[in-house]
TrEMBL record:
Domain of life according to the entry: Eukaryota
CDD domains xref list: MPP_superfamily (cd00838)
Listed Pfam families: Metallophos
Region (Disordered): 1-24
Every Calcineurin-like phosphoesterase domain range: 56-144
Organism, as annotated: Eucalyptus globulus
Ranges of compositional bias, category Polar residues: 8-24
Identification of the protein by name: Calcineurin-like phosphoesterase domain-containing protein
Length: 379
């Protein structure tokens, strides 16, 4: 994701929200009929070169941003041998331009046996070259068509006894329920977030309300018969999305250089949907992978393990945010079970021992200094 001022941005709330509470906030899925298909389908059962599910490994990665040459080089340098029997889940924000997207996914498909993908916001930007004439939904169709040609999966699939379920999503501003920061003048979303200018939507779809979030959530409806089959037959399930399903998966506003960030990162309907898959109380066999915020994360909330493993921007890695890049992609599943927790994981480590205080609006010292310096330089 891109914010025009902020080198770091994120924090989370600790108060759990039940699925029943969330579902009351989601409007009726008026977009669902656009995506429903008239026949019952069965999940694809993919072969594995391992032959034995006990040897299956699943790696996760998000926010590749390969429009940056350093990031494209990182992808090119991934071993062409090491992962030939492995699965990779790509949780969005591959590249801004179509050509870089296709090149990146081609490189990943050459290196991994199976590659899965869900779209991120940067993938749907339309502001360069011939893409200026595209709408974001038109570009989405082009990306999904490219994935189909390349053999990249965007639908739920079974590999051995493991179910893998991509979930389409988008954010809405009402996702944020924390107290706003009012002690400093915070730039408006339209100024800080490039999505408001680089994405092009039909008039009836907007970030301001839940229409975009509902539209993308409805894209999952045509796969629900497959999902029900997976729930009945698979011992373990990994769901993944680009956007975050709970505000607790982002640092508190007072910790963020852009405190309004929670308004542009997540979706209530996403949490409702993944709870419908994993269960209201979750289980040790449930995992959800996400991206977007550029902070590595590994935490269990209400019985579901939530993981983020972003490549992020070169400037962020140079500051060794998230511990650099050598640990990526992260292996979340191996030998028939989920792997040990990712560590170190700064923010999820922090919240594992410190309670979340969403009503505390006193800025963290580094954020207060940042805004004080901005005030001084504009005087």
């Amino acid at each position: 994701m891109v914010l025009r001022l902020a080198s770091s941005y994120m924090s989370l709330p600790q108060t759990p929200r039940s699925s029943s509470h969330l579902s009351q906030r989601i409007p009726s899925r008026k977009f669902g009929k656009m995506w429903k298909r008239g026949c019952t389908r069965r999940p694809d059962i993919l072969p594995s070169l391992n032959g034995d599910n006990a040897c299956l490994r699943v790696f996760v990665l998000s926010d590749l941003h390969t429009d940056y040459s350093e990031n494209m080089m990182w992808v090119e340098c991934l071993s062409t041998v090491k992962h030939k029997r492995d699965v990779l889940l790509v949780a969005g924000d591959v590249a801004e331009t179509y050509n870089n997207f296709v090149l990146t996914m081609s490189l990943l498909k050459e290196r991994f046996e199976h590659v899965f993908y869900v779209p991120g916001n940067h993938d749907l930007w339309c502001r360069r070259g011939s893409e200026i004439s595209f709408g974001s939904l038109e570009k989405l169709e082009k990306l999904l068509d490219a994935c189909k040609r390349l053999g990249v999966k965007t639908d739920p699939v079974v590999i051995g006894s493991l179910g893998i379920i991509p979930l389409f999503s988008w954010y809405h501003e009402s996702f944020d329920r924390e107290d706003d920061i009012t002690s400093f003048r915070i730039p408006p979303l339209e100024m800080a977030c490039k999505d408001y200018h680089a994405c092009k939507w039909p008039e009836e779809l907007s970030n301001k309300d839940t229409s975009l979030a509902s539209y993308f959530d409805a894209m999952n409806e045509h796969n629900m018969d497959i999902v029900e089959d997976i729930k009945k037959t698979c011992e373990q399930i990994i769901t993944f999305s680009h956007f975050i399903p709970r505000q607790e998966l982002c640092p508190e506003k007072r910790m963020l250089f852009y405190p309004n960030l929670p308004k542009i990162i997540g979706s209530d309907s996403l949490e409702v949907r993944l709870r419908s898959i994993h269960g209201a109380e979750g289980s040790g066999s449930a995992c959800h992978v996400f991206g977007h915020t550029h902070f590595c994360w590994d935490a269990v909330l209400d019985g579901i393990r939530y993981v983020q493993a972003p490549l992020a921007y070169p400037r962020e890695r140079k500051r060794r945010m998230n511990g650099g890049e050598n640990w990526l992609p992260f292996c979340v599943y191996s030998d028939g079970e989920f792997t040990e927790r990712l560590s170190p994981c700064y923010w999820s480590d922090y919240y594992s021992v410190n309670p979340r205080r969403p009503h505390n609006t006193e800025l963290a010292p580094w954020v207060a200094r940042f805004y004080s310096q901005r005030i001084n330089t504009t005087r």
